[in-house]
Predict the 3D structure of the following.
Amino acid sequence: MNNPIKLSTWAKNIAPSPTLAVDAKAKELKAAGEDVCGFGAGEPDFDTPEFIKEACTKALAEGKTKYAPAPGIPELRASIAEKYQRDNGVDGVEATQVVVSPGGKYSCYLAILAVISPGDEVIVPAPYWVSYPEMVKLAGGVSKIIFAGKDAGFKISPEQLRESITPKTRMVVLNSPSNPTGAVYTPSEMEALTQVAVEAGIYIMSDEIYEYLLYDGVEHVSPASFSKEAAQLVITVSGFSKTFSMTGWRLGTLMASLPIAKAVASIQSQTSSNATTFAQYGALAAMQNWDKSLSAIHGMLEVFNLRRLRLLEGLQSIDGIECPRAQGAFYLFPNVESFGLSANDFAAKILQDEKVALVPGEGFGAPGYVRLSYAISDSMIEKGIERIARFCNGL
Ligand SMILES: *Cc1c(COP(=O)(O)O)cnc(C)c1O
């Protein structure tokens, strides 16, 4: 038959998620009976806090099983608006400026779709979360990658941002704390970057999904809090996945100026409709019982912090590995260039030889680096360090 299946331009251009690919390979090996150390996963290993699950179960029992308003149940949108005023210092946020979506990933995509037209440029600092450039492509936009490596603490400078802005630039993506590097911009660094964007009149998509996962006493700041002008231009994206260990619930949030939030709600109403109704009631319990939420978050953070320090120490003690001290999220992003292998080859070989799964940096726009998640058990971390050391010493 000379009529083969023809895929769209969109389908042909999109790269499959490399993080999910590593995960799939590791699971395959596990299923084959191999003892795999999986540093690949991008999700907390804790269960969702009980009180959140109970609220969801209750909603389900009460028949909250129907369509809800497309941008989210009103109580949840209101409580998120309130949180941004109370915790993040963003003035005058109304519930109508908040949209709840099926996952933070979809919130990011909606943010891009709402303001990016074909040919528009989006500045994406690397190392970046794997999905941003793919989403920009799906919107017909063009990613302009600017790089900040370990010597810059994985943080772009205001000058770098200013120099990369052209008449076609519409948006810059900021993700602090960062996946994959764990880097956190200080409030003054963030303010300087925001200033550059505001002066140029470009949007900031601020992905703050790791905002509560901070260590060493560092602070998170939302660019939308700096000024009225900033609040107009910043699209703040977040979600429940990482903070509350709710990855499978698929609940993301977006907060933006009213015209953008309305556009986002319209796109969502035509593409996915509301995020799962009863799941939103679980999220509502998290927002309305903030003390309980904070104590759940702090419990998780204490565990993450010990693992972070242990993995950091383990990696830093290996000859040839350079590992910056990440202060947010649950990732470390060491440089492995000195071994003379590409990160892809390093990851493939260590999985083969030592059954250690980690994610090569190429997919994050950072060849030479690998990402390790420490959202795994202490014993797995210990075993992993031993294996990585043996592997590196043998190279
Ligand atoms: C995990 C993650 C998200 C969104 O995750 P969801 O599970 O879709 O809510 C968004 N941005 C970054 C940087 C992430 O790591």
Notes: The chain has a mean pLDDT of 96.
